[in-house]
Amino acid sequence: MGFFSEFSKAVKGDEAGDRYMVAGKGVTCPHCGGTRFIEGSALLDSRGSSLFGVEWAGYSAVTLTCTSCGHVDWFADEGLVERQ
Predict the structure, then answer these.
(1) S-S: 20 plus which of 27, 32, 34, 49, CB 3.0-4.6 Å?
(2) Coil, helix or strand for 15?
(3) 32-58: per-residue pLDDT in tens?
(4) What is the CA radius of gyration of the chain?
(5) How many CB atoms lie within 10 A of CB 46?
(6) Distance between CA 51 and CA 21 in Å, rounded?
(7) pLDDT, position 59
(8) What is the distance of C-alpha 41 from the center of its chain?
């Protein structure tokens, strides 16, 4: 399912998202204490890559969006993020 359909389920009170572990610890939202997240990705850009128009060649990060409040956490090492 896509981000918006999962987030819509969460807003309506339905159980949406998944639980995650990062570096062996369960992920909890630092804002509301929620434990369900929607996984996404984002490019980590630099001035140099923007200058030359090669942002697509940069590193990416995993984002976890809390289904309760919408807070987004970023994790640069995607190898440490695992769905439970």
Answers:
(1) 27
(2) coil
(3) 999 999 999 887 765 555 556 655 556
(4) 14
(5) 12
(6) 36
(7) 76
(8) 6
Tokens describing residue 7: 């987030």
Sign, CA torsion 52/57/58/61? positive
Provide the pairing of β-strand 37-44 with 25-26: unpaired
Share of the chain above pLDDT 70, in %: 65
- Structure token digits, residue 34: 């929620």
Could you tell me the two tokens for 18?
């998944």
- 2-8 long-range contacts (CB < 8 A, ≥24 apart) are 3/38, 3/40, 3/65, 6/38, 6/67, 7/38, 7/65, 7/67, 7/70
Regarding pTM above 0.85, the answer is: no
Pairwise CA distance, residues 66 & 37, whole Å: 5
